[in-house]
Amino acid sequence: MKEFVLIFRLEELPEVNFSPDEMNAKMAVWEKWVDGIIARNILVSRGNRLSKETRVIRDKKLVTKGPYVELSEIIGGYIIIRAASIDEAAEIVKEAPIVGKGTIEVRGIYQYED
Question: Which contiguous run of DSSP H or E holds residue 74?
Fold first, then answer.
């Protein structure tokens, strides 16, 4: 099995003024999807939600206060899973709750050979 990082990109920052019940309902949908990945024993790392504050450094100089000034997408978070191939990993993420509200980038993690 290979490892893949799933990078969740949103088209805009989600609302943050949810009531506790609304937040619990939204998180329940996400947790159900992640629980399915856990049940299949393919979750490597849950990752974290990322903040919108960023800095990009190039050649020891601050280049921008974000990865791409013109970029309208926000990286919301990531997880790492195991799958036999990148195509299998892509199939796994098709049912993620974010589908339709943003995109999911599937990227292989380089494995060093002994």
Answer: strand 74-83
Of 6-10, 46-50, 96-100, highest mean pLDDT? 6-10
Q: Could you tell me the CA-to-CA distances from 23 to 20, 29, 31, 43 in Å, in that order?
A: 5, 10, 12, 24
pLDDT at 65 over 70: no
- What tokens were used for 76? 């919301």
The verdict on residue 34 lying in a domain is yes
Q: How many CA atoms lie within 13 A of 45 on its CB side?
A: 13
Copy the structure tokens of residue 77: 């978070």
114, part of any domain? no
d(CA 105, CA 34): 16
